[in-house]
Specification:
The complex is a heterodimer of chains A (about 450) and B (about 1050). Chain A is mainly alpha-helical. Chain A has helices at about 1-30, 40-65, 95-115, 125-145, 145-165, 170-205, 210, 225-245, 250-255, 260-280, 285-290, 290-315, 320-340, 340-360, 365-375, 395-405, 410-440, 445-450; strands at about 70-80, 85-90. Chain A is globular and about 70 Å long. The termini of chain A are far apart. Chain B is built from 38 helices and 22 strands. The chains are: A mainly alpha (about 450), B alpha/beta (about 1050).
Chain lengths: ~450, ~1050
């Protein structure tokens, strides 16, 4: 039996080492300005994904053979004091293994897609370096056994996502939208970090099993009180909402469609958008402790689903349509988690990711498909308000249409209620500082500097 | 100067009379102004029927050179390749120095030898400016460059030692002679100060012992100081950049805040909702009532917690609604509020339209050609568009100006306020200009002494000379030299090939007629190589069958003919009587599957049903996902096999014969009368000059292209069929030519088609290089063997063609065998991940109209449109040639010019890289999440193109051609204004002459012989770049 355990540990380590090696290989080559050929990059990626996928499958097979449902790989205890522990630890269980497998399969497929799609594109190398970082982030986040490890993966995913959105950096749109997404991600990161601090405060270490009980997922019994669970859960929910585009962050997903089609497809449409739901699944025993938390989840999930559905109905470009369709399903998944249907949510998540990836990469075929569809049906396609709104009067319909058309004003809301006041406060501070230093220097140079800084209109942050 | 260079164009469109001032006529002229400005918008229609056209179509009545300049200024794009790129081509040998010299001489004519301030001739000055890259940049950069690099220590690289040594020696002599000993006391004070600056760095006391390097530095420093002193105070001669006109541009220049960001963001979404052809599930409310009504309805709704401009907009729209202001009145009001007066109104409206030119252009297209879209736009939509845009702009400008520069006055004062904030324009900086002269002085060996003696007038002359040969001028010269090299080679090739006696043509075993498309050039060549006893001809790919066509499984009729023709006939494909039941069954199955697929797809976008579906079937989606990406060709076959039972039934016919009913889209109006059929058949045969020597088998082969995940698929189809496949046209024509009644009528008109001649139609898929034949069940036994042999030859030709195409694909190894190449192109057409299914028309550069004999056996590198035309069979008025040129020349010119512009500025004229494209409204593509609708071609389509204008070589006499240029307005305009080049191959003397300045000049070949190769394969093998033309001479088979 112990041989089996060792084998599982090694295989588990390999599953994480493979993407890490890929990042190092591509990243170091780029840092040294040794531009790899397209075929070398491709081979490295195939090797890394192949090894990672096989290792993951190996762990799964061994787990099935041994009947063990919870395999832990510890890569060192980095900080260990009396009441503070930071461990890098990975867990293979019924939640993480399917999610890691999904990441490998979809990323591998998309890599194969992208190697042809990105052929000869300026930025080929940059794309695949970011791709490797993204993959590593996904694997680390899905297999993590402690909240710090999860945060590490979470950050890698966020960073690479924002940079991939701004892939066409020479145009203004991608840069602005990349910045928008980066800002939303930072809010979500901050919430996750706070949750980590609270968790440490509660249990002294960030290990999930401390909080969620020793039993393998999903049977854990959380040891927290209702209030504790609610506070931690709420912080985690904010983190998840940012990452998964739940209300009020729905606006970032369509903005993410600036990069090349494959990255939009797999990263935002399928993987990264589910990371929030995955986080909630990971801590789902916590929800059992606090029915209020569950209720919040259900309400938020269903509201997001409904809103995204409504907004999706009025979108006029294929990528935005698919983004809102994605959000709507993610909302349903979150609601399922809130209701305690964990396996259901997991299966839903896996299925949705596969289906949406397929739809996303076929997006450029849309004209072909529609033409085929019209030929098969023998008529032009029709469109009408959603069925449940058929009763409404034209005026009411127009009002609802406007609401959906403006994407429920969520971005405007964030902008006017948070971003602009935030910017204004800091700009005021900046002015004060200039005035202050100018006064200290006894001259008017501060004022001179000020006139040189371009004045910022609000469109800069939209 | 008119802003954006728009106003110069006024003469070409009808400018309203400014004396009309009554209210009614004012509203009319406003409408006219918008109408006129609308000509500037891109004329690309829906992407599903992609028609190649000249990107600068609106400027065709101007000479090319002027048009690209104006167009470039107006649209903010590049007119030619960059100067750096041209210099690379010069280094690479693609541009010859000799050509550059000749072009420049030709351009300057007598002015070439004029002396510039006695320094050098104008020709030499310009040549130096062309050959060597001259560094220029902002003042700060140059100051840094001079201070921190070797610029003042070492004479720049690339200066010949015959220039360099005298430059240093003479300066040294000058210093020792005039300045050090003689000039010190009574010398020019400026020299003294100049020298002081230099001696801060070099030790004057040791001047006798200075090394070569120190003298070099001294020379350069003296030169630099002289130049700086000389250029100071000379007015600028650089072409002035025009002032912006829109408030947004002023605000942007003054504060960096871009009001268009908000306006466009909102407007893009609204336009998309308005023009949508069925992608969105929920239609814009009151869309059918027009743009303005829908806009007003939508934005009058209460908005949520949001920016104040939305509230202003709502209030504004409510007011307009209450006052019952129409779109035109609203535009007038907006212009008043913005302070735009009558004189600048047209320019302002044009600039407003061009702010989102893709969307505005699409709305105009939907207004003009309602027959090409499912949901047309009502007349007047563009005016309403302008009205809505101006209202929105006013609201956003007010808010942006308030935030960015605390401006709260009326908008009509905004431009002045911004101008005031910007301050007056600064005079030209000294350093950038001095640095230009400084570099040229080194290249041309102008000594500091010589320059120092120049007076203010001479400096003015020198700078005028240098600055008037601006970057655009240099690029124009480069471009001509770039073209000339290719043209000379092409003309030489044809002159030499045509001069040789024609090979004795054996009676052809079969004839094959292709489209004029340059992609068929290689297929024809390979066919003739593989089967020496075969002849090929070509004709515009719609085979004179202009019609609306509906396939057996299609939902609607589509036009299959050049875009300028509106078809008058309808043709449908129907299942044969014995297949009717089968057909019905398949239609039902298809409909069932279609509606199921539609429902499922729709449901995945919804939430409750979607949740159920993704839960139950989602994971299964990974199977097609992985399979299609990892093995596209294999999955394609699988789909083929399973899709078979819902596809077109095995035996179908085109309904071609019409009864007595007039032609129309209903059942009884389908088809042609026998008279109409024979007219078309006769025209086809006479145009090609195929009127005798018919083979037993004549193949008519149209072409189309099939690829996946490619919004631009239509652009790869047959241009002469309006972006559709030419298969149905070929099929219809073959049936017509086989009809006994038609043959009889042809005979009456003196066109005898032998009884045993059979026409068979096919369609060449240019993406996967396969040929599908039609109506084979009607093939008589007598011809079966001939046909099978022909089919084998064509299959061989296709395979070789695929191999030749593969040399252009970087992802296809050069070592591919023939069959591997065929598999490679097949996989390409089935691959979801392939952004370059084929190269399309890229590299097209020639159009040869004449007998195949003139080009047979030439390797033309897939760069030539070839149209068959026999001058010996034409009548006195050249009516056949006129007809052929009318069909061929504008289409080929359109293709060529679209590729030209999309290549030279892919982000400006073209649609940029394809990878982030996002299909919007089923009409076009945007970049990423939201952008202007992108028109033109994506980079992946044009990247191997060579941007040169089309050279037409026509087999006829100068007299005939001049007559046609005179008579036909379109052709005359294109040729006279230099949008295409024109040359002739004399039918009898076989001499080549070139059209220049309204006359034809004889062309003297520069070489005496053509390179030869045993086969096309031997000539192109192992080479990816463009190839020289060559003669292919197959090794004669021993018999």
């Amino acid at each position: 039996m112990s041989d089996l355990n060792i084998a599982m540990s090694w295989l588990g380590g390999l599953a994480i080492a493979a993407p890490l090696a890929l990042v190092l290989f591509l990243g170091i080559a780029s840092l040294l300005d040794r531009r790899l050929t397209e075929s070398a990059t491709t081979k490295a990626i195939r090797a890394a994904i192949g090894i990672g996928l096989l290792a993951c499958l190996g762990v799964l097979v061994l787990m099935l053979i041994s009947g063990k449902r919870h395999v832990v790989v510890v890569l060192g205890r980095w900080v260990e004091t009396e009441d503070f522990h930071v461990t890098v630890k990975f867990v293979f269980d019924r939640l993480s293994v399917p999610f890691a497998l999904l990441s490998f399969v979809l990323s591998g497929t998309i890599a194969s897609f992208a190697e042809r799609y990105m052929h000869r594109e300026a930025g080929y190398n940059r794309f695949f370096v970011l791709y490797a970082v993204f993959l590593l982030g996904m694997i680390v986040a899905s297999l993590s056994g402690t909240i710090e490890t999860l945060f590490l993966g979470w950050e890698l995913v966020g960073l690479s996502s924002a940079l991939l959105v701004a892939f066409y950096q020479e145009r203004l749109g991608p840069a602005r939208n990349g910045l928008w997404i980066w800002s939303v991600y930072r809010v979500s990161d901050a919430a996750l970090l706070l949750a980590a601090v609270v968790l440490h405060h509660m249990t002294g270490r960030g290990d999930f099993h401390r909080l969620l009980g020793e039993a393998a997922w999903p049977e854990g019994q959380a040891s927290a009180t209702g209030t504790e669970a609610f506070v931690v859960g709420l912080l985690l929910l904010i983190a998840a909402a940012g990452k998964s585009g739940l209300i009020p962050f729905c606006g970032w997903l369509p903005r993410a469609m600036e990069g090349p089609t494959p990255s939009s497809a797999v990263f935002y449409g399928a993987l990264s958008v589910h990371l929030g739901a995955f986080l909630l699944l990971r801590v789902s025993p916590l929800i059992d402790c606090s029915p209020a938390l569950g209720a919040v989840l259900v309400v938020l999930g269903l509201a997001t689903a409904g809103l995204a559905y409504l907004i999706g109905r009025v979108q006029t470009d294929i990528k935005a349509i698919l983004s809102f369709a994605s959000l709507s399903q993610v909302g349903v998944i979150v609601a399922e988690i809130g209701l305690g249907f964990r396996y259901l949510a997991l299966v839903h998540l896996l299925g949705h990711a596969c289906l949406r990836t397929l739809q996303f990469i076929r997006a450029p075929s849309l004209l072909h498909d529609y033409h085929g569809l019209e030929n098969a049906l023998g008529k032009h396609l029709t469109h009408a308000p959603p069925p449940f709104l058929r009763w409404a009067k034209p005026d009411t319909l127009a009002r609802i249409y406007r609401f959906a058309f403006e994407r429920a004003y969520l971005d405007s809301f964030l902008l006017t209620c948070f971003v602009l006041p935030f910017v204004r406060v800091f700009r005021r501070c900046d002015e004060l500082e200039r005035a202050w230093t100018g006064w200290l220097q006894g001259n008017r140079s501060g004022a001179e500097d000020e006139s040189k800084t371009p004045s910022l209109g609000m469109e800069e942050v939209t | 100067m008119s802003p954006f260079g728009v106003r110069q164009r006024d003469t070409s469109f009808h400018r309203p009379n400014p004396s009309q001032t009554t209210d009614h006529s004012r509203s009319e002229s406003l409408q006219e102004a918008i109408e006129r400005a609308a000509h500037l918008l891109p004329s690309q229609g829906p992407i599903t029927v992609f028609i190649h056209h000249n990107t600068l179509h609106a400027f065709e009545d101007m000479p090319f050179v002027d048009a690209v300049k104006q167009g470039a200024e107006l649209f903010g794009c590049q007119p030619y390749l960059t100067e750096d790129r041209f210099r690379q081509e010069l280094v690479r040998g693609r541009i010859r120095f000799g050509d550059l010299w000749e072009v420049l001489r030709d351009d300057l004519k007598e002015a070439a030898e004029e002396k510039i301030v006695d320094l050098c001739s104008r020709l030499n000055l310009r040549l130096a400016m062309l050959q060597s890259p001259l560094r220029t940049g902002p003042t700060e950069e140059l100051v840094w460059f001079v201070a921190e690099t070797d610029a003042l220590r070492r004479i720049r690289a690339g200066v010949a030692s015959t220039v360099r040594e005298p430059l240093i020696a003479e300066t040294r002599r000058w210093f020792l002679r005039d300045l050090r000993y003689n000039g010190k006391s009574g010398g020019d004070p400026p020299f003294a100060s100049m020298l002081r600056g230099i001696f801060d760095r070099l030790d004057e006391s040791k001047v006798e012992n200075w090394s070569e390097a120190e003298w070099e530095e001294f020379t350069l420093r003296a030169l630099w100081a002289t130049c700086c002193r000389g250029v100071a105070g000379v007015p600028s001669f650089a072409p002035r950049t025009s002032e912006p006109i829109r408030h947004r541009d002023w605000l942007l220049a003054a504060t960096g805040a871009d009001a268009d960001w908000l306006v466009n963001d909102e407007f893009i979404r609204f336009c998309a909702a308005f023009v949508d052809q069925g992608l969105t599930r929920w239609r814009l409310p009151r869309r059918d009532e027009g743009f303005f009504a829908a806009f007003s309805t939508l934005y009058r709704q209460k908005s949520g917690p949001s920016q104040s401009w939305r509230r202003t907009l709502r209030a504004e729209l409510c007011r307009l609604k209450q006052e019952k202001t129409g779109p035109l009145d609203s535009i007038r009001e907006s212009l008043d509020m913005l302070g735009v007066d009558e004189t600048e109104r047209y320019d302002y409206l044009a600039a407003t339209l061009l702010a989102l030119r893709g969307w505005a252009g699409m709305i105009r297209q939907m207004e003009l050609r309602g027959d090409r879209v499912a949901h047309a736009a009502p007349q007047g939509s563009l005016v309403e568009y302008v009205a809505a845009r101006l209202i929105l702009e006013r609201c956003v400008l007010t808010e942006t100006a308030r935030q960015a520069m605390a401006f709260s006055g009326p908008l009509r004062e905004l431009r002045d306020a911004a101008r005031k904030r910007l301050g007056p324009p600064s005079p030209p900086a000294v350093e950038p200009r001095a640095f230009l002269v400084f570099q040229l002085a080194q290249l041309l060996g102008w000594t500091p002494e010589r320059l120092a003696r120049m007076g203010a007038e001479e400096w003015t002359e020198l700078l005028r000379e240098i600055e008037s040969f601006s970057e655009w001028e240099r690029r124009r010269i480069f471009h001509r030299a770039y073209e000339k090299h290719f043209y000379d080679r092409a003309l030489d090739t044809l002159a030499l090939h045509a001069a040789e006696p024609a090979r004795g043509a054996a009676p052809p075993r079969f004839q094959a007629v292709f489209c004029i498309d340059e992609r068929e050039e290689s297929l024809r060549r390979h066919l003739e190589e593989a089967a020496n006893d075969v002849e090929t001809e070509s004709v515009a790919g719609f085979f004179h069958m202009a019609m609306y066509y509906r396939g057996a499984t299609d939902a609607a009729f589509i036009p299959v003919c050049p875009v300028v023709i509106r078809p008058q006939h309808w043709v449908a494909e129907q299942a044969t009587a014995d297949c009717r039941d089968e057909f019905e069954r398949r239609t039902r199955a298809r409909r069932l599957l279609g509606s199921m697929a539609h429902r499922v797809h729709d449901a995945t976008l919804a939430f409750f049903v979607g949740a159920f579906l993704t839960l139950s079937l989602g994971v299964l989606a990974s199977l097609p996902l992985v399979a299609r990406i990892l093995s596209p060709r294999w999955t394609a076959r699988l789909r083929e096999r399973f899709g078979g039972w819902v596809r077109t039934p095995p035996r179908t016919r085109l309904r071609l014969e019409r009864g007595d009913a007039p032609p129309g889209p209903e059942d009884r109006g389908w088809g042609f009368s026998e008279q109409e059929m024979s007219d078309r058949a006769e025209q086809l045969l006479r145009d090609m000059g195929v009127t005798a020597r018919f083979s037993r088998l004549v193949l008519l082969i149209g072409h189309g292209s099939e690829s996946l995940n490619n919004p631009y698929n239509s652009a790869y189809n047959c241009g002469a069929c309006g972006g559709a496949s030419g298969g149905p046209n070929a099929r219809a024509m073959a049936s017509i030519l086989n009809a006994p009644g038609v043959r009889r009528r042809l005979e009456e008109r003196g066109l005898v088609v032998p009884n045993d001649t059979l026409f068979v139609a096919g369609c060449h898929n240019t993406c996967n290089d396969s040929i599908e034949f039609f109506d084979l069940d009607r093939l008589p036994e007598s011809h079966r063997q001939d046909f099978e042999a022909a089919r084998r030859d064509l299959a061989t030709a296709c395979e070789r063609n695929a191999h030749e195409r593969c040399r252009r694909f970087l992802s296809a190894p050069l070592s591919l065998t023939l069959s591997e190449a065929q598999r490679h192109v097949e996989a390409r057409s089935e691959d979801l991940a392939q952004p370059r299914p084929e190269c399309g028309h890229a590299t097209d550069a020639l159009c040869i109209v004449g007998r195949r004999l003139a080009t047979r056996g030439l390797f033309l590198d897939r760069r030539a449109f070839l149209a068959s035309y026999d001058p010996t069979q034409d009548d006195e008025d050249a009516s056949v040639l006129t007809r052929v040129l009318r069909a061929v020349l504008p289409v080929c010119a359109g293709i060529n010019l679209e590729y030209y512009f999309s290549y030279v500025d892919n982000r400006g004229w073209g649609s940029g890289t394809k990878l982030p494209h996002n299909i919007s409204a089923l009409l076009g593509v945007m970049d990423g999440a939201a952008s202007d609708l992108r028109t033109g071609l994506p980079w992946q389509m044009v990247e191997i193109h060579e941007p040169i204008r089309l050279l037409n070589i026509i087999e006829t006499t100068p007299e005939v051609m001049l007559g046609i240029l005179e008579r036909d307005e379109t052709i005359g305009r294109l040729c006279r204004n230099g949008w295409v080049h024109l040359a002739l191959l004399h039918p009898r003397t076989r001499r080549v002459s070139v059209y220049r300045d309204g006359r034809f000049h004889l062309h003297e070949p520069r070489t005496r012989s053509l390179p030869r190769a045993a086969s096309s394969l031997a000539w192109y093998r192992g080479w990816r770049d463009h190839l020289d033309f060559a003669r292919i001479e197959p090794i004669e088979r021993e018999t």
